[in-house]
UniProtKB/TrEMBL annotation:
<dbReference type="GO" id="GO:0003723">
    <property type="term" value="F:RNA binding"/>
</dbReference>
<dbReference type="GO" id="GO:0005737">
    <property type="term" value="C:cytoplasm"/>
</dbReference>
<keyword id="KW-0694">RNA-binding</keyword>
<keyword id="KW-0808">Transferase</keyword>
<dbReference type="GO" id="GO:0005634">
    <property type="term" value="C:nucleus"/>
</dbReference>
<dbReference type="GO" id="GO:0046872">
    <property type="term" value="F:metal ion binding"/>
</dbReference>
<keyword id="KW-0943">RNA-mediated gene silencing</keyword>
<dbReference type="GO" id="GO:0034587">
    <property type="term" value="P:piRNA processing"/>
</dbReference>
<keyword id="KW-0949">S-adenosyl-L-methionine</keyword>
<feature type="compositionally biased region" description="Basic and acidic residues">
    <location>
        <begin position="51"/>
        <end position="61"/>
    </location>
</feature>
<dbReference type="InterPro" id="IPR029063">
    <property type="entry name" value="SAM-dependent_MTases_sf"/>
</dbReference>
<keyword id="KW-0460">Magnesium</keyword>
<dbReference type="InterPro" id="IPR026610">
    <property type="entry name" value="Hen1"/>
</dbReference>
<dbReference type="GO" id="GO:0030422">
    <property type="term" value="P:siRNA processing"/>
</dbReference>
<dbReference type="GO" id="GO:0001510">
    <property type="term" value="P:RNA methylation"/>
</dbReference>
<keyword id="KW-0489">Methyltransferase</keyword>
<comment type="similarity">
    <text>Belongs to the methyltransferase superfamily. HEN1 family.</text>
</comment>
Length: 439
């Protein structure tokens, strides 16, 4: 890899704005800066055109940004690559603002995610992004997220035996010497079965109105063309026994043949390759910051949710029939039918499957029917409906005065019980009032 890295070293040393130290920068800001620059340039040109009295219509369209933010496209693309390989554990080097969590937490089989970055302050300032949200409760396996302050150029034995490693917009922040160390750490010492790398494509910079040699971020040590990136990736495969596929995200039709804005390399480990010998020391050089255990739903809890949901909706249908039975027009489209003995109501399974709490926990009507039978319910002869007993109300003359006979617990019972005791009077529901009584 020496010839290729020599060229990159020359490019790096010619960049007056770059820093010599290794530093991981936010993944989402580089293109935003370029888009602002492109917008400012466009504004300047328009102003000059107006001052000169020329036609204000621009000859060429200006780049106004991507429909979906580029950083979101990157995270989604990487997440899909991990999902294809059924990854259960992953390290994200250069995690910075922890933004990968929104996409990576959607990987169904992912059990362990470790976020590593050299900048401890940025990690700590963005730990709030790792707070579990409502959508995470639908996971079927628990996801544990560990956060470390660490340098990708240094080996830490705790990072061993992970299925995958991602480096999203990281390598362009490493000086060539550190990039070599990074490659040795990732591809030789840790050696996961999958590595996903993304980096800017310098050929796309013309779309942002940038000049030759100009870079998207002050800390970039180099930005590679497509051929340079692929040359580096091919050498990785030769040196460490991987195969690679190239792709990218962020496209435009404003300028032809510039490729993707952000290019992606997906490395897959080849079995049987004799890697370079390395001393497998037990060393823990990264500094632990925190751990977050995400919620998940077990099969047992799914069954409980399904059972309680079915109970609720069947009770609701029984109430609806009792209240609206004399008003069939109100029941149109529901498919409810009275049984021959007039003691029960047939509720179609297809009607129950309309509710998210049912279909999210039961794959189809047949599975729902089997579940109802095992839970003690009775199905119709064709197996397409479940029978539910009608709810008999004690009185048809419910009045507000009856509230006075209710104790405090009854008056403040749940809304479902109040609904069940309500009666249809004059075509409207009369529900017991639990607020202050007004004369």
């Amino acid at each position: 890899m020496s010839d290729t890295m020599t060229n990159f070293q020359t490019q790096s040393s010619s960049n007056k704005n770059c820093c010599s130290n290794t530093h991981n920068i936010s993944n989402g800001t580089d293109e935003e800066m370029c888009q602002e620059k492109s917008h400012d340039s466009s504004t300047t040109e328009n102003t000059a055109t107006k001052e000169n009295g020329k036609n204000t219509d621009e000859k060429h369209s200006k780049f106004t940004g991507f429909g979906i933010p580029l950083n979101v496209q990157r995270y989604e693309a990487v997440r899909k690559e991990l999902g294809k390989e059924n990854i259960e554990s992953c390290i994200d080097f250069g995690a910075s603002e922890c933004r990968v969590i929104d996409q990576f937490s959607q990987i169904a089989n992912l059990k362990q995610l470790t976020l590593v970055d050299l900048d401890r302050n940025t990690l700590v300032a963005n730990l709030h992004r790792l707070t579990p949200r409502l959508m995470h409760y639908s996971r079927s396996v628990q996801l544990t997220v560990n956060v470390y302050e660490g340098d990708v150029t240094k080996y830490d034995s705790r990072m061993k035996n992970y299925d995958a490693i991602t480096m999203i917009e990281l390598i362009e922040h490493l000086i060539p010497e550190d990039l070599k160390k990074c490659c040795n750490t990732v591809f030789n010492q840790l050696r996961p079965k999958l590595v996903v790398v993304t980096t800017p494509n310098s050929q796309f910079n013309v779309v942002f109105g940038m000049t030759a040699g100009e870079m998207r971020h002050w800390d970039h040590k180099y930005e590679w063309t497509m051929s340079e990136f692929q040359s580096w990736g091919d050498e990785i495969c030769t040196s460490f026994g991987y195969k690679v596929e190239y792709s990218g995200v962020g496209v435009t039709d404003l300028v032809p043949d510039v490729g993707f804005c952000s290019q992606i390399a997906v490395f897959k480990r080849e079995e049987g390759f004799l890697s370079k010998p390395s001393i497998d020391l037990h060393q823990e050089v990264y500094k632990y910051i925190t751990k977050i255990d995400f919620p998940f739903t077990t099969e047992e809890s799914k069954q409980n949710i399904l059972l309680e949901s079915v109970k609720y909706y069947l009770r609701k249908y029984a109430c609806d029939w009792n209240i609206l039975g004399d008003h069939p027009e109100e029941l149109d489209g529901r498919g409810l039918e009275e049984t021959n003995d007039s003691n029960s109501v047939k509720v179609p399974l297809s009607e129950l499957m309309l509710y998210s709490s049912v279909w999210e926990n039961c794959k189809d009507r047949k599975a729902l029917g089997d579940f109802l039978l095992s839970s003690g319910y009775t199905l119709s002869s064709d197996g397409e409906s479940v029978l539910v007993e009608k709810i008999q109300f004690e009185s048809n003359n419910y009045s507000s005065s009856s509230d006075e006979s209710l104790n405090e617990d009854d008056q403040y019972g749940d809304a479902e019980d109040d609904y069940s005791r309500s009666l249809l009077i004059g075509g409207t529901y009369k529900v017991p009032c639990i607020e202050e009584q007004w004369d």
